[in-house]
Amino acid sequence: MNETEDSKYIQQHLANERTYLAWIRTALAIMGIGFLIVNIHFSTNANMNGRSDQLVEMIGVLSVLIGLIAIIFSTIHYVRKKKQINQQTFTSALHLVWLISALMLVMAGLFFAYFYLY
């Protein structure tokens, strides 16, 4: 049986794949929450004014953007980690975590503004 580069580090590759799939689930959940807020707002006709409508639209657009950014960067992260595992040069990268965290704080601020100001 021939041993491939990936087969030397099966556990690490499986963990990398699980992490990637967790990021994908998180991205889909973020997008889903945005769609839910927009749908609830416009289907209930509550607080229908220009400012709240714009805020809800911003929440929807931002949630989709955050989800797409998470998918793109997690895919790049997965591919890089795969290569680093095989080369035994793995280093932890926090850029994705910081980026998504900052964007989620912005979205949380918009949620706060929507729910408590309107």
TrEMBL record:
Q: Does the keyword Mitochondrion apply?
A: no
Any matching Pfam family: DUF202
Q: What is the annotated localization of this protein?
A: Cell membrane
Where does the protein principally reside? membrane
Q: Where is the DUF202 domain?
A: 12-83
Entry annotated with the keyword Protein transport = no
The record's section on PANTHER family has: DUF202 DOMAIN-CONTAINING PROTEIN, FGR18P
From the Swiss-Prot or TrEMBL record, give the protein name.
Answer: Membrane protein
Say which species the protein is native to.
Alkalibacillus flavidus
